[in-house]
């Protein structure tokens, strides 16, 4: 397991980390989320030895993490750390050699990753001629080239198109299935919710929530109703008892055959039966049911 216990970091009077603790188990994909400046990058830099902690400890396999063990980690920094004038294939192979691979193994592994990440047509191009998304793919290949025992990835999905996102997600899932602990940060909460076994939410340097998405949902005491009504007059939802979370008038995807106004409301109800009565009076009720909060909603509630 990769363990962080009581990590603290200050920059003058600014508290960057305030007792951060978390564990990433073998084969687990851990999503690390928080607002800009919350402490995600600082935590990852301490794990990789780029920064030193003022207090606390990072352990790998039950022992304090040192330089030799870190050489077996795959790290993808938020800022790209590539040689701009080096060709793609040469660069990935070079980092493989730095990671301890022999020349032949580095070449084979580089070619396999370049193909898997959709870079075959750019293998001979200089990195600085690539789009930001393709540079991100190269950075990921560099992190993976030496078959790391742990993956620490800072915003790996940033700037990627949907096809590249799927390719990256598939690679990470394969590594996790092979027993590799994977921790990555992301502002794309839908991806975190879809991919991760566990999630940690950090705010102002402190871990404020952690667990599976199901466990985080269970913490949310405010149950939500989703109500869809057609043919209602404007303003009918304002009479619903409770707090309206979202309200959409005539969403793009209306139900086939429906005519007139189409409203979708998500409500924290004070009285669900009264809400049903008012919705039935307002128009034709197409949907009325409890809705589980997504990770984005949980995040807003936790950091508010």
From TrEMBL:
Residues 2-229 form the ABC transporter domain. It comes from Sphaerisporangium dianthi. It is found in: Cell membrane. Keywords: Antibiotic resistance, ATP-binding, Nucleotide-binding, Transport. GO terms for molecular function: ATP binding. It holds the Pfam family ABC_tran. The lineage of its organism: Bacteria, Bacillati, Actinomycetota, Actinomycetes, Streptosporangiales. It is a peripheral membrane protein. InterPro entries: AAA+_ATPase, ABC_transporter-like_ATP-bd, ABC_transporter-like_CS, ABC_transporter_ATP-binding, DrrA1/2-like_C, P-loop_NTPase. Belongs to the ABC transporter superfamily. SUPFAM superfamilies: P-loop containing nucleoside triphosphate hydrolases. PANTHER family: ABC TRANSPORTER ATP-BINDING PROTEIN, ABC TRANSPORTER ATP-BINDING PROTEIN NATA. Coiled coil: none annotated. The keyword Transport applies. This is ABC transporter ATP-binding protein.
């Amino acid at each position: 397991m990769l363990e962080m216990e009581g990590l603290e970091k200050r920059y003058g009077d600014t508290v960057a980390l305030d007792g951060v603790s978390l564990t990433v188990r073998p084969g687990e994909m851990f999503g690390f989320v928080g607002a800009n400046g919350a402490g995600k990058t600082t935590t990852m830099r301490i794990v990789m030895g780029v920064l030193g902690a003022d207090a606390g400890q990072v352990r790998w396999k039950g022992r304090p993490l040192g330089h030799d063990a870190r050489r077996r980690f795959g790290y993808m920094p938020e800022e790209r750390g590539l040689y701009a004038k080096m060709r793609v294939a040469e660069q990935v192979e070079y980092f493989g050699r730095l990671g301890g691979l022999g020349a032949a193994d580095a070449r084979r592994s580089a070619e396999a990753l370049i193909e898997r990440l959709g870079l075959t047509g750019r293998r001979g191009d200089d990195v600085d001629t690539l789009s930001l998304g393709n540079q991100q793919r190269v950075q990921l290949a560099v992190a993976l080239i030496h078959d790391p025992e742990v993956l620490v990835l800072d915003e790996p999905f940033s700037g990627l198109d949907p096809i590249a996102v799927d390719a990256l997600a598939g690679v990470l899932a394969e590594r996790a299935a092979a027993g590799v602990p994977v921790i990555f940060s992301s502002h794309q909460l839908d991806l975190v919710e879809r991919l991760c076994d566990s999630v940690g939410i950090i705010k102002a340097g402190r871990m404020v929530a952690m667990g599976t998405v199901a466990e985080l949902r269970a913490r949310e005491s405010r149950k939500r109703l989703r109500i869809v009504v057609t043919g209602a007059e404007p303003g009918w939802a304002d009479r619903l008892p409770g707090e309206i979370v979202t309200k959409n008038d005539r969403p793009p995807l209306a139900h086939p055959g429906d005519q007139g106004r189409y409203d979708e409301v998500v409500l924290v109800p004070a009285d669900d039966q009264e809400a049903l009565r008012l919705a039935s009076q307002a128009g034709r009720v197409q949907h009325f049911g409890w809705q589980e909060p997504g990770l984005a909603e949980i995040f807003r509630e936790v950091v508010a």
